[in-house]
Amino acid sequence: MNTTGLTATAALALALTGCGTTPVADRPAAKPSNPAPAPTKSSAFLRPTHEQEKNLLTALTAIDPALTVKEERAVSRSVSVCDDIRKGKDDATVVKNAAYRYNGGDTTVDEAKGAKIVEAIKTAYCKA
Which terminal CB of the chain, N or C, has fewer other CB atoms within 10 Å? Predict the structure, then answer.
């Protein structure tokens, strides 16, 4: 290798190893620029207990049997509705979101049926 090559290699090696006087282990840790906010109780998804789930499914079936054709899906959707309630969303938004979540498949869910679904979820397990 010629002298120019050795000089370039040495310069590159110095650049890669760093010439600072403070060892890496002694440097303060970098702080994240946007730390994630700590989760609050109201944003934690609340699942029903086994007994509450049975009561919920019974109530939803009474509203419309098509709502519980896929029971796990019905429970999963109720968890999302409950999360809206616990986050303090206004009633109209909670009802609208519930109607949207449960609409489809073998049933059509309008806001009137959405309101019944929200009431069933509140009664079965979800307290604000």
Answer: N
Cα–Cα dist 64/123, whole Å: 17
- Over the stretch 3-40, which tens digit does the pLDDT of each residue have? 555 455 555 454 545 545 555 455 555 554 544 444 44
Contact status, residue 95 vs residue 118, Cβ threshold 8 Å: yes
Tokens encoding 111: 């806001």
pTM exceeds cut of 0.70 = no
CA distances from 12 to 1, 49, 91, 105, 113 (A): 15, 62, 64, 64, 70
Distance CA 126, CA 16 (A): 57
Say if residues 66 and 107 touch (Cβ distance below 8 Å). yes
